[in-house]
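pasting for ref. prot 1 ->
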Amino acid sequence: MPRMLRFTFVDAGVSGRVELHETLAARTVEAIWGALATPVRQLSFHAMFAGPEIMIGLPPENQTFDPRSLPPENQTVIPTPGDVLWFYQAPNMMKGLADEFWEIGMFYGDGGRVFGPLGWTPVTMFGRMLAEDLPAFAKECADIRLRGAKMLEIKREG
C-alpha cells in the first residue's frame, strides 16, 4: 500500500488524503516523509500568481534535509487538480527577497499554472489528493481566497 499524507483544515475539520508518488518522485517523497515525522500545523495561504493553489511553509523544526540535494522529479508547470507540490527557493534568489522558501502546495482546481514573479517555475509533484476527498477540501481552499489564511495540518497517514 502506498504511503499517504493527510491534509486537514483544523477549524473546519475538513481533510483529504494524499497518495505519495513513491516511484515518480522517490527522493522528494523520502525527504518530505522524514520531515513529517512531526506533523506540521501552519497557516495556509492562497497563491497570487498560480491560480487555484494553496501553500504552507515547512517550519524550521521540520527542515530535516538539504533541499538543494533533491533532484528535479516529476516536474511540471501545468498541474491538475489534486496535485501536491514541493518547492524550494534559496535566499536571495529573487531580487529584493532575502527569504528562503520551503513550500508544500496543492492545486485544488482547473487552470493552475506554476508561474510567479520569476516566470514559469517547474516544481516537483510528489503526491495527489484522492479524488473522493478533493471536492470538500477544494471548497475550503477556495474560501481562503475570499476570507484569508486558514490553519492547515499535514501529517503522515496511518
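and prot 2 ->
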Amino acid sequence: MKARLAASAVLALGLAIGATGCSMVTYQATTEHYDASDGVSITVGELDLRNILVVSEDGTDGNLVMTVVNTGEDDQTLKITAGSTTQELEVDANETVVLGGEETEPLLLEGIDAEVGGLTPIFFQYASEEGIEKEVPVLDDRLYEGLAP
C-alpha cells in the first residue's frame, strides 16, 4: 500500500512540475518593451519622450505630437530637428508637456519631405546630453483630427 501511495505522490509531483515548469523555458512576450500606440518612444537623458508621431496632410510639413516627461530636478530645453526646422521646447523639472493635447499646440515641422504612412528622421537633444535620432511615423489626420498643419 505504501508503494502505491509513494508512486501516486511521485506521479502527481511529476505532473505538477511538467504542467507548471514550461514557463521557465518559454519565451515571455510580456517582458519585452513595445509601444502600444501609433507613435514611438525614446529616452534622452532625464527626458522621456512618449508616443512621438507627426501628423501631416501631404508630407511636406507636419505637426509633431508627443508627450515629454522631465524626470530630473532641473528645467530643460529640448531641441528638436526635423527637415529644415529646429524647434525648442521648454520642459520644467518634474513636469509633463503634451504637444497636441488640450493645453499645448503641436510643433510645426516645415520641410520634412516625408511620405504619409512612412517614417521621417527626427533628432532630439538637450543640454550636454548625447542626442538621439529616431525614425518617427508620419500619419494623416484621419485618427488625429484637427492636428494636421
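The longest helix spans residues 2-20.
The beta strands are 40-44, 47-55, 62-70, 76-82, 85-91, 96-99, 107-109, 119-126, 132-139.
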